[in-house]
Write a structure and sequence with these properties.
Length: about 400
């Protein structure tokens, strides 16, 4: 009996690099070490902070803050534009190190991954293994990692976050609920500003209060669809660490700060996603036949609408146009404030060129897209803005400036 119980207990590491973009810059230019550094762009520009060194965070600087505000809070900071290609290279090295310790690895972005180490028992303790991984990452890449160890993913993620910088927290089996109980609900992945405020106004400030909410009351307030959140609050998360094979789809989505009915903003956001997805498809020499638009309305009703075309696409304009068609069809049916918008490409096929009746036009567009990718790689994603993304940034900046 005890033997079976033991076998079902998993050990999951969540490893997240500290101030990732900034630390890469500091590794490449040691003069920046131990200094307040911000990656995001020039402070006189309209962008936002992507990554801030811990020296700046003391002054209240954080990701997604307008650069102008960061400059006010921390005038001595060094502002850098950043280079996505360099970050990707460091990310590969980081993931390669992790995959030496377990084949069961799920990257959660460039600088974070879950590692299921359950079977990996040739270390005296999980702490020893985590320290070894931290040490290797630092020795081989110069980067600093924080690690959370727990029997499930959500607790491991919260533990790594809480341990930062250069941290390590181990939550032993059976202690998950107690560990989470005193933490603010906002620490739970999936609880953003809006949900956090809604919970607070219902008198729920800690994860423990959420976990202890009577089931019936929780269901009647937030619906069956949110039950996972209550389970997570209790330290229960059965989701497996999912190894990613060849990507089957690529997607981008965003939750607006304020629900919106502004079609211009929705279209501008789609343009931004189309550019990101197009760049990723071209980078991996892939094309997509299916495009899916996701809209979540203010009442949490979620609509997914797809279109599949005979010709696979990887050009920003083609993805954007199909996205706009889906958006117009969807909004035509139901017009109420939108909380979240997402775009996904799937049904991926290999391919270099786009077949089309308008072959020369496509060739020209491909060249433009490649040139844009090149400049963005060199100078960062913000170096070139098309009309639509400019409009998007403008709106976003207007919103964040009023914060
Ligand atoms: P994070 O892991 O959220 O942030 P971080 O690594 O800079 O800092 P820490 O983990 O120590 O809290 O994100 C990883 C990278 O992703 C980050 O370095 C920059 C990028 N990023 C953005 O570009 N925009 C954002 O809003 C966020 C949150 C991150
Ligand atoms: Mg990080």
């Amino acid at each position: 009996m005890a033997e079976t119980a033991k076998q079902t207990i998993r050990t999951i590491f969540h490893i997240d690099l500290d101030a990732f973009f900034v630390t890469v810059e500091q590794v490449l230019n040691p003069a920046l070490r131990n200094k307040p550094v911000i990656v995001g762009g020039r402070p006189e520009g309209r962008g936002v902070v992507a990554s801030a060194s811990y020296e700046c965070r003391k002054f209240g600087v954080h990701a997604a803050m307008p650069l102008s505000k960061a400059k006010r809070l921390c005038p001595q900071a060094i502002f850098l534009t950043g280079n996505y290609r360099k970050y990707t290279e460091f990310s590969y090295k980081f993931m390669a190190i992790l995959s030496d310790y377990s084949p069961c690895i799920e990257p959660g972005g460039l600088d974070e991954a879950y590692l299921d180490v359950t079977g990996c028992e040739n270390f005296s303790s999980w702490r020893t293994l985590a320290l070894k991984i931290k040490e290797r990452i630092n020795r081989e890449t110069g980067l600093v990692a924080s690690v959370g160890i727990a029997p499930c993913k959500v607790v491991a993620k919260i533990a790594s976050d809480l341990s930062k910088p250069d941290g390590l927290i181990e939550v032993l089996p059976g202690h998950e609920k107690k560990f989470l109980a005193p933490l603010a609900v906002r620490k739970l992945p999936g609880v953003g500003e809006k949900t956090g405020k809604a919970l607070k106004s219902a008198g729920i400030e800690t994860i423990g209060q959420l976990a202890d909410m009577p089931l019936g009351l929780f269901k009647s307030r937030y619906g069956e669809g949110m039950l996972w959140l209550r389970e997570h609050a209790g330290g229960i998360d059965k989701s497996p660490v999912e190894m990613r094979g060849e990507a089957k789809s690529i997607s981008r989505e965003t939750t607006f700060e304020k629900d919106t009915m502004n079609t211009g903003l929705l279209k501008a956001t789609l343009r931004y996603f189309a550019e990101k997805l197009g760049a990723e498809l071209r980078e991996s020499s892939k094309k997509a036949r299916t495009l899916t638009l996701k809209l979540r309305y203010e009442d949490f009703e979620t609509v997914n609408r797809s279109s599949t075309s005979r010709e696979a696409m990887n050009l920003d304009d083609a993805i954007f146009q199909s996205g706009i068609n889906l958006l117009e069809k969807t909004l035509g049916k139901k017009y109420k404030p939108v909380r979240l918008i997402g775009l996904e490409v799937s049904n991926l096929v290999a391919g270099e060129t786009q077949l089309s009746l308008f072959h020369t036009d496509v060739k020209r567009l491909e060249k433009v897209d490649r040139a844009i990718d090149y400049i963005r790689d060199k100078y960062g994603f913000d170096a070139i803005q098309t009309g639509y993304t400019m409009e998007l940034k403008h709106k976003y900046d207007e919103k964040t400036r009023d914060e």
